[in-house]
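Posting this for the archive.
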Amino acid sequence: MRPVALKEFVGQEHLLGPGKLLTRAIESDRISSLVLYGPPGTGKTTLAAVISNETKSHFEPLNAVISNVSEIRKAIDQAKKRFELKRQKTILFIDEIHRFNKAQQDVLMPDVEKGNPILIGATTHNPFFSIVPALLSRSLVFELKPLTEKEIRLILNRALEDRKKGLGDEAVAADEDALDFLSKISDGDARRALNALELGVLTTKKEAERVHFTKKIAEESIQKKAVVYDADGDAHYDTISAFIKSMRGSDPDAALYYLAKMLYAGEDPRFIGRRLVICASEDVGNADPQALILANAVLQVSEFIGMPEARIPLAQATTYIACAPKSNAAYLGIESAMKDVAENKTLEVPSHLKDASYKGAKSLGRGTDYKCAHDYEWHFRYYNPTDQGVEKNFKIYLESLRKSAGFA
């Protein structure tokens, strides 16, 4: 069902709508090297092939998982010969280009810079983290978005009607709720929706010369959702970021959703536990010291009970931290102190605070005139408690000390 012309391509209106940069470049045959970045099933490979067709270029596909430097060099040499003999440009399409190491990516640069072949790389990883800057600077980066339910539905309808490439000859009677279900559950992945439709139709017995594609068949065909969540990619870091920010923002419902997404995708519960400990200290702090104790307990528990049971204590700590009063005063305090140490003159420990426990210390002036903090008021410069939770008591206490010492 891959389209061969730009007018057949579904989705990515932000890139391929009328008058958009990529559309203008394709229509005027002014394509330069591109990196197409986005989740699976959004049309990266298809778009590369369409560009090749529209610009009448030779399409040379490679997969970075199985290709090596010799194959890259061979493809480049053939592209040069093709241009010399036929004046035909070559689109060198490299799927999963983030899999190439630096040396492999460096091989591409001289010829990519000259414009033959034209490189189109496809990746599910953020190219600004996975592709060398020199190659990235010679390419335009376009991010493809997950398809909408309406766009997936259009693609499914085409597949059911197309007699040449689709299922048009199978005499399929598809229920509306079945197609609606596939459109929604596919999470913007057209390939996944089409695979499920094909599997359901071709494995269902015909009744009265027709295949009745029901919602039940659709549910059986789609199996478990493949949540977009790469352990070392954007989805991983974006989801944990949203998880922490939801707890920080006191939104237990959003925090539980992102927790569920991570666990469903197979995230290590110990990783989540460590983030809970950090959030409990950084964002709750002394407004509720119990949050850190609970988070640490959950981290230890998640290490020895594992999934699926670990989801329960993880949810307990998540909701506790989300609902707890918030204070980042301790975090801000140490950040301020660290900045002083890094940027200002390092202060020597005053003689009266130096260790005076060893023989001869007094003769060096160590510990002289030391006043015990238990006997006198003290003043702290970095830590400024908030009015949240338990920390409010700290604030009242410290303010009274500072006032009595003349600092208020």
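The chain has a mean pLDDT of 86. The first strand starts at residue 34 and ends at 37.
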